[in-house]
Amino acid sequence: MEYVIVRGGHGRALLFWIRDREESVCVSDMALMKELQGHAVIHDLEGRPVVPKDGERFLDAAYLHFLLMGHEVERNYVGRCGLDDPYCLEESVQDSGSCL
Q1: How do the domains of the chain map onto residue ranges?
Q2: How many CA atoms lie within 13 Å of 99's alpha carbon, on the beta-carbon side?
Q3: SS3 72
Q4: pLDDT grade, residue 91 (50/70/90)?
Q5: Eight-class DSSP state of 47
Q6: pTM of whole model > 0.70?
Q7: Where are the alpha helices (DSSP H) in 1-100?
Q8: What is the pLDDT of residues 29-65, one digit of tens each?
């Protein structure tokens, strides 16, 4: 599972992730995403607007967008135990976010 964490200050964090075998990006808190994003539209490197349904392109663009806005951003991958990495941690993202 690939994910991006954006730390928004005041102990708040926004999480984007793509579940295994899925295309769309899940967003932990759409309201917080809009707040941190501001009025700027998230664009890919070619300048095209992207949305969570764009999957990997959106994850790449969101990482860069929030980094350039000065937020603390982390991107990582968590493998499925026993399949991708026998020593990995179990995926622990709850189904509280929305996948679009």
Answers
A1: 2-80
A2: 14
A3: strand
A4: very low
A5: S
A6: yes
A7: 30-37, 56-68
A8: 989 999 998 888 999 999 999 999 999 999 999 999 9
